[in-house]
Amino acid sequence: MPDDPTLRSADAGLARVNALSPEEFRAEFGRCLGVERWAEELRRRRPFSSRSELLDAADRIARTLTDEEVAAALERHPRIGEHARGARTEAEWSRGEQSGFSAGEAGVRERFAAAQADYERRFDRIYLVCAAHRSARELLDDLTARMGNDAVTEERVVAGELRRIALQRVERVLDSR
User: Fold this and answer.
1) pTM of this prediction?
2) Per the count of CB atoms within 10 A, which of 20, 31, 47, 75 is most buried?
3) Which DSSP string do the residues of 114-158 spell out, in sequence order?
């Protein structure tokens, strides 16, 4: 690639992201959210002059997800407590994000599993939460509180949690390699 001053940056991660081919970009950012439109819209906004510009764009685009896109993205997430299998980057990220839950006391995890089954029956989807740095007790409290949501409110909450997970993963992409 020719030397392009817009791609030069003291931030090696940002420079790497700006230099990715379209296919590489879609693959990297597809692991962050799993919505093709989101990754493609983000790709078209390159080059980014800063991390905050990239994160702001990722956030703005994620706020426009349709219910169908959210549902499709949910299919790529394991249930809390069911660690993602495989060595794929997404599985590795998911295992790390749920590490606080895994370290929780068994009794809390058992109550969580029962509440999670109730949630799935009520809302007909997995319970999704940005679990990074949260304990099993915190996740149980969040799940219990969300059971009081109506379906429309819960759809908005799930979309917000998906967006938070995606933004954390964008930071990981920037920090990788």
Assistant:
1) 0.82
2) 31
3) HHHHHHHHHHSS------TT--HHHHHHHHHHHTTS-HHHHHHHH
